[in-house]
Q: What sequence folds into this?
């Protein structure tokens, strides 16, 4: 991964090459970013989903393992944007696992 690549390009390459889905915190760590840039990474992921799909002609997609409540097991399946919810709507717990992301070939879904 080139240091001259944009942050978005670096995230795309990381998510393509990763063996497992990565959380935003893991992306921040892998790209040696400041922790406060996590919000920026979430914003990039929204655009990356569109970019990857359009540039590959639908051959690649950004997939998200949805966040879930560690207390009651509720899964946040209806998220419109990639983010880590702050509280569970079922039990009100704040013990939420973050979403994880990976770029996959459409045929592997």
A:
């Amino acid at each position: 991964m080139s240091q001259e690549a944009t942050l978005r390009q670096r995230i795309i390459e990381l998510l393509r090459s990763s063996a497992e889905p990565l959380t935003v915190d893991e992306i921040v760590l892998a790209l040696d970013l400041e922790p406060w840039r996590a919000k920026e990474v979430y914003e990039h992921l929204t655009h990356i989903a569109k970019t990857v799909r359009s540039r590959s002609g639908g051959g690649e997609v950004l997939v998200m393992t949805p966040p879930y409540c560690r207390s009651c097991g509720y899964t946040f399946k209806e998220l419109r944007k990639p983010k880590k919810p702050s509280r569970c709507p079922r039990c009100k717990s704040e013990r939420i696992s973050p979403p994880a992301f990976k770029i996959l070939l459409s045929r592997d879904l």
